[in-house]
């Protein structure tokens, strides 16, 4: 079996006490497991690889996220292969399980229409009495936020995801996606206690404890193109924390800078930089919030890289930082202007400080007449990026590992390679137990033999079981799969922690049963 690897920089210290077994849990060893972190803020820059961070720092100066303790590198591959999508990556980060591209917090074959739902970090937090929130610049029903509070076999089932939100008990939901909530569903949300918000004025005047903010019909308009009617990602985050921090047991909040990825799909460098800077403003806000507290963990990462951006297209200083900084529109907005009849030179040069060649104009004109919804904006991306001194590898996702940064309790410098699933179980462990003791190989082997024979029960076993999150494939993981659904997930960890795990003899011969509700804890 492959055990999950705890990120030691986020917690492991000292040695486990007298024993690490279910059958011999000493007071000393159990006492090494402290209380969990009270507040967790997970910040995900969707598609934000290393180079978008670097180029943004060239344009705007060092970023707040670059001041954070380096935790290491997190691999992004999914069950589909080396290049993940946001659904599988979000599932790995939220549940500790690898998934096939397109799946949202479920475990099953790629074409399985009724896969097993997996309890997420957000749902784990709810079960421990924490307030919870999801904030994004994508549709709130899009892949990354959806992975934390819904369970569907296909990320395109956004209507179903919206319906599941109505039953999710998430306290704050804010982003775009108004089109996914019809009048009937909005009334259901209001009936569940949500104050429904549609613009900045609504957010400023909001007085409710539960918020549903739908600030655009689809994705939230790019930073370069929006007006004051749409709140910034930082304003949404601040409003979310204002509500969530009132809960005595703390809160879990995931914030996504989701449109970094979309800009990168179009190789739109000025928008990539603007969206990354806007995301970094949230990082700055979160670090300031956590600075004088000893109860709040801030983790920053990306789910994957998009576009394969290169920091510079030549030696020396090829990046036109001032032109990128002064850009007044995204390539999507420029493309819309061209489609509406604005001459190409006027549309481009009036919004970005570049001088197009005749060849550039012809390339853009040819793309305007080409098939495909993104042909024009992609051509603009290629032309404008060339003038601004950067290069791209593709218009789709790429597969390299991503950086992880963290600040707060139990964070120490670390340089290592993990996987999204390892990062997930480490955060789950910190939510439940705080700083983690280490356990020796001999203690581990003794614990495994005991678990296979007597089954798990209690705090120490729940902590050790986190490293086995994944499919149940042998005697140990089958014993840890206490609800018998074929996987070890965070629901099993809760059942073990709360002493509700049946013994192996009680499990014997039990047929696999589907989970009725991930909220039925």
UniProtKB/TrEMBL annotation:
Q: From which domain of life does this come?
A: Archaea
CDD domains to which the protein is assigned, alphabetical: ALP
Give this protein's Gene Ontology molecular function annotations: alkaline phosphatase activity; metal ion binding
Entry's Gene3D superfamilies? 1.10.60.40, Alkaline Phosphatase, subunit A
**Do you know which SMART domains this protein is assigned to?**
alkPPc
Keywords on record: Hydrolase, Magnesium, Metal-binding, Phosphoprotein, Zinc
Q: What cofactor does this chain's UniProt record say it requires? A: Zn(2+); Mg(2+)
Question: What's the Enzyme Commission number for this chain?
Answer: 3.1.3.1
Family of this protein: Belongs to the alkaline phosphatase family.
Q: What is this protein called?
A: Alkaline phosphatase
């Amino acid at each position: 079996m492959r055990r999950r690897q705890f990120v030691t920089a986020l917690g492991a210290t000292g040695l486990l006490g007298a024993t690490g077994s279910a059958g011999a849990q000493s007071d000393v060893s159990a006492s090494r497991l402290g209380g969990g972190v009270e507040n967790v803020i997970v910040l995900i820059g969707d598609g934000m690889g290393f180079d978008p961070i670097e180029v943004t720092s060239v344009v705007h100066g060092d970023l707040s996220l670059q001041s954070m303790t380096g935790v290491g590198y997190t691999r992004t591959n999914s069950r589909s292969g080396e290049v993940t999508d946001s659904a599988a990556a979000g599932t790995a980060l939220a549940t500790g399980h690898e998934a096939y591209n397109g799946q949202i917090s479920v475990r099953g074959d790629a074409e399985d229409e009724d896969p097993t739902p997996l309890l997420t970090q957000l749902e784990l937090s709810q079960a421990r009495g924490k307030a919870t929130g999801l904030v994004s610049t994508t549709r709130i029903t899009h892949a990354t936020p959806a992975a934390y509070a819904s369970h569907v076999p296909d990320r395109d089932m956004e209507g179903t995801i919206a319906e599941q939100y109505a039953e999710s008990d998430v306290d704050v939901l804010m982003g775009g996606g108004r089109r996914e909530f019809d009048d009937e569903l909005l009334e259901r949300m209001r009936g569940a206690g949500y104050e429904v918000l549609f613009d900045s004025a609504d957010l400023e005047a909001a007085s409710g404890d539960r918020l549903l903010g739908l600030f655009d019909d689809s994705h939230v308009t790019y930073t370069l193109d929006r007006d004051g009617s749409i709140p910034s990602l930082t304003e949404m985050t601040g409003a979310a924390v204002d509500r969530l921090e009132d809960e005595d047991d703390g809160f879990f909040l995931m914030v996504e800078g989701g449109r970094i990825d979309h800009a990168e799909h179009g190789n739109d460098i000025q928008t990539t930089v603007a969206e990354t800077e806007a995301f970094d403003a949230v990082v700055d806000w979160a670090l300031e919030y956590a600075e004088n507290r000893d109860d709040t963990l801030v983790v920053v990462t990306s789910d994957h890289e998009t576009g394969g951006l290169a920091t510079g297209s030549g030696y020396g200083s090829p990046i036109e930082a001032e032109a990128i900084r002064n850009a007044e529109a995204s390539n999507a907005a420029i493309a819309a202007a061209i489609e509406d009849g604005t001459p190409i030179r006027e549309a481009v040069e009036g919004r970005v400080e570049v001088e197009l060649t005749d060849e550039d104009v012809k390339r853009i004109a040819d793309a305007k007449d080409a098939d495909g919804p993104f042909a024009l904006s992609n051509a603009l991306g290629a032309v404008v990026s060339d003038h601004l001194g950067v290069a791209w590898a593709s218009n789709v996702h790429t597969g390299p590992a991503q950086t992880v940064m963290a600040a707060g309790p139990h964070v120490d410098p670390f340089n290592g390679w993990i996987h999204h699933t390892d990062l997930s179980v480490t955060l789950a462990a910190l939510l439940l137990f705080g700083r983690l003791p280490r356990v020796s190989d001999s203690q581990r082997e003794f614990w495994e033999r005991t678990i296979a024979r007597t089954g798990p029960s209690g705090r120490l076993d729940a902590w050790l079981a986190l490293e086995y999150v994944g499919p149940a494939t042998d005697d140990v993981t089958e014993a840890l799969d206490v609800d018998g659904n074929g996987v070890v997930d965070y629901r099993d960890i809760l059942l073990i922690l709360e002493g509700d795990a049946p013994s192996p003899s009680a499990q014997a011969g039990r047929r696999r049963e589907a989970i009725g509700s991930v909220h039925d804890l």
